[in-house]
Amino acid sequence: MKSFLLFLIVTLFCVGCTSERMKEEASTFFTxxxxxxxxQQVATLPVGSKAPDFTLPGTxxxxxxxxxxxxxxxxxxxxxxxxxxxxxxxxxxIKQIVNDYSHKGVALVAISPNSPLGLLYEELGxxxxxxxxxxxxxxxxxxxxxxxxxxxxxxxxxxxxxGPVATPHVFVFDKDRILKYQGRIxxxxxxxxxxxxxxxxxxxxxxxxEDPAVSSTKTFGCxxxxxxxxxxxxxxxxxxxxxxxxxxxxxxxxxKDLVKNEDSQKLRLINAWATWCGPCxxxxxxxxxxxxxxxxxxxxxxxxxxxxxxxxxKALDFLKKSQSALDNYIFTGKDVYELIEIVxxxxxxxxxxxxxxxxxxxxxxxxxxxxxxxxxxxxxxEHPMIGRYY
Length: 390
Hints:
By secondary structure, the chain is an alpha/beta fold. The protein has twelve helices and 15 strands. Strands 10-13-12-11-14-15 form a six-stranded mixed sheet, with helices on both faces. Strands 5-4-3-7-8 form a five-stranded mixed sheet. α10 links the parallel β12 and β13. α1 packs antiparallel against α4 and α8 runs parallel beside α11.
């Protein structure tokens, strides 16, 4: 039994090492450099067209081209991404298509068409990740994708050639790489309510030597984030930067109420910090980004400064520089040890300290020290009050 447990521990450790090594290899083999593009009309590739060629970096630390799938009787090209709730809702169905059809001569490749330049924090409320190349690697490993996942965010040249209007958007090609179907995967977004019926029908028809009965459908999902869609991003960033930033006094009773979280009906993230705490200052802007990501949902971030009250102006100056246009408080009590017990009895007092609190005061996540923001965002989006889908 001991030998088996030792084997299991070593195996799990090695799997973790392999995942981290794959991520490191992929992120070093290719460095993304998204470029702005002039605005242009984008047309969806018409049925009957030849598949446009491509050579794109994958999340598995290699380049993929159209020729890599030359032996497939049917090729499915799926345009999808990390952040879109609709795209996430279809990930398991895409994996199941690969499981069900790969032995029948069907190949599937996924391409992210989005430029990171065109993506707002406010559009990330259903995800822990944005659409840049490094975070595609994280999603690829987290979800154990069984298909190549390629990045086209630098110049979107391949996406411009195919013309996906939303994520996900599928293109199905026959043996001669002639487009025979383009559109949706199925008509039911919610996981568990659809089985990729439209995509399966197109694949089955081609495997039987026939054209699909339906060759084109509309798609539903997040619009493609083209690199010229930056004006809205600039506008929203300017509006956020112009918001008023204030710092409210909070005695121990106010802090108790914050932690009880009986007033908001929201998932509440509380970060205790101070201007004299180096790690606090370095990580704080990421908390503001999290508020921008999830603030339109049942979520709020609350900032609690432990600076001395006489240093309130210094704390406020920092919050203004950080564009912390949210609920900011400074503790006005004299007994910091009493505060520690109020915030969380499991906190030993070192800064920074962060807790995630449900309505009613249940702490569902706590962390002392610098936060792993990938992990924190995942905790938030996978909480039942938030979720990845509509």
